[in-house]
Amino acid sequence: MTKYLFAVMTGVLCLSLLGCGERIIGLAPVSGTVTLNGKPLAEAQVFFQMPPVGDAKIIHSAAFTDAEGKYTLKSVEEVPRSGAMPGTARVRISFDYKIPENASQSEIAKLNLPKMPERATDGSLSFVVTPEGSSEANFDL
């Protein structure tokens, strides 16, 4: 009797989760490398903005590049998951400049910060995320 009750309760729970509003789409693993003028771009943020897909919850994904310019996307959710939603993503790549608060223009010039091309930040870059994912979502800026 206990096994029967457990099976019924599990079934009811599964059905209630399926019927609750938003449909959850599986994420595909996505990683790659970002380079600027042929050199790895470290500490850049890579952001995949996904378009709506029917009634599914839209999940965007992001990552920071490491010293070699490599990144692996994770969802931008309360509890992040690895990957990105399948579909054509608008990609934005930005760089968080670490500039001292009271730095003068000449001090900033001495920092020799990389200049990001406009196409990296304006959303004109895109990448097609397939359900299988990709380890070659590379961007050469």
Describe this structure in a few short sentences.
Helices cover 19% and strands 28% of the residues. The chain is built from 3 helices and 9 strands; from the N terminus they run αβββββββααββ.
What this model shows, in words?
- The protein has helices at residues 2-18, 105-110, 118-121, and strands at residues 31-36, 39-40, 44-49, 61-64, 70-72, 74-75, 87-95, 125-129, 139-140.
- It has 141 residues and is of the alpha+beta class.
- The strands form 2 sheets. Strands 6-4-3-7-8 form a 5-stranded antiparallel β-sheet. Strands 1, 2, 5 and 9 form a 4-stranded mixed β-sheet that branches.
- A hairpin with a 2-residue loop joins strand 1 and strand 2.
- The termini are far apart.
- Residues 1-23 have low confidence and may be disordered.
Q: Percent of residues in helical segments? A: 10-25%
Compressed to H and E, one letter per element, the order equals HEEEEEEEHHEE
Query: Reading side by side through the largest sheet, how are the strands ordered?
Result: 6-4-3-7-8
Q: Identify the overall geometry.
A: elongated
Largest sheet geometry:
5 strands, antiparallel
Relevant terms:
about 140 residues, alpha+beta, four-stranded mixed beta sheet, 3 helices, 9 strands, elongated, disordered N terminus
Blueprint (SSEs and pairs):
Blueprint: H1 2-18, E1 31-36, E2 39-40, E3 44-49, E4 61-64, E5 70-72, E6 74-75, E7 87-95, H2 105-110, H3 118-121, E8 125-129, E9 139-140
Parallel strand pairs: 1-9
Antiparallel strand pairs: 1-2, 1-5, 3-4, 3-7, 4-6, 7-8
